[in-house]
Amino acid sequence: MKTMLDDRKTAILAAVVQEYIATAQPVGSGSIVRSEVVNVSSATVRSELAVLEAEGYLVQPHTSAGRIPTDRGYRYFVDNLTKPGRLAEPVQKQVGEFFSAAHGRIEEMLHQTSNLLAELTHSAAVVVGPRAEAVAVRRVTLVGLSESLATVVVVFANGSVENVSLELEPGDDEARQNAVSAHLSSQLDGTLLGEISELASSGDPEVDRLSAAALAQIQTVAATDHVYTGGVSEVAKAFDAVDVVRSVLHTLEQQFVVVSLVSDIVNRGMSVAIGVEHGVEPLSACSVVVSPVVVDGEHLGSVGVLGPTRMNYPQALATVDVVSSELGHRIEEG
């Protein structure tokens, strides 16, 4: 059962969270009284702060210091006090212009999107692009590199390109390679790699052998998640403790962990995971704000930001929402 605070405690908790986000300093009763969020005495504010601490919404890092929010305090703030934010007009214009000017390979656009998101939120940004297996194939070409090695180049409908190496056997000459290119294109153009289990026969067992080997290599690469991170240095600036910085940076370098983190939050229907809620212990001092990238009604990727639990949640939510929406439209346009 969800606990609801009375109006006075709610106002005091909001004041503590907002001031701590802004200053990174423990908040004392004097600050609350001066802010005039509640018209009560300093003694009453101190009493309410003590109750909020006892109920797990605040913690006092030092006896003589003020209080700071706990993960529970941030969660209450996000769920009950954070209204959907709206980006400032100049920022919305910047995002719109960025995607209007984004051309070329999708990989480069996704990388640039992570940098844009990091710049706007002053947090680490994560962009998980669509898996190639979920995007229609536009063209397949087999290119010989030597007598024993070739590369298979696959161009997808969204502009992304995958290259895989393929070992050749004696007799896999240029004519056979051209036949494989033609066979793969006839079978794969316009289809989704994730829906192909096997190829129809070309009538030539050797072409079928090489085509099957190429398809297996392509599908392995196409099932790989593409993750782009930006602004990682912003996270380092947010923490004083060297061990926390080291732990966070090391975790962000692990692509599988990042993908699992973002996917799990989205799959749980959440937009914000605070502290230990996301289940990745090395990132317990961080919050993650995510939004799915939807293309033609399907979830094909995600964007998110990661920062300290004292992040500016309204701004992060608004920014992630706008960027994910614009990115989805841009991918849809091709």
UniProtKB/TrEMBL annotation:
Keyword Methyltransferase among UniProt keywords: no
Keyword Repressor assigned: yes
Record SUPFAM superfamilies: GAF domain-like, Winged helix' DNA-binding domain
Any one GO molecular function term: DNA binding
Residue ranges occupied by any Heat-inducible transcription repressor HrcA C-terminal domain in the UniProt entry: 107-315
Highest taxon listed in the record's lineage: Bacteria
Pfam family, one: HrcA
GO biological process per UniProt: negative regulation of DNA-templated transcription
Keywords: Repressor, Stress response, Transcription, Transcription regulation
Task of the protein: Negative regulator of class I heat shock genes (grpE-dnaK-dnaJ and groELS operons). Prevents heat-shock induction of these operons.
Family that this chain belongs to: Belongs to the HrcA family.
Protein name per UniProt: Heat-inducible transcription repressor HrcA
Species the sequence originates in: Ilumatobacter coccineus (strain NBRC 103263 / KCTC 29153 / YM16-304)
Lineage start: Bacteria, Bacillati, Actinomycetota, Acidimicrobiia, Acidimicrobiales
Name of the encoding gene: hrcA
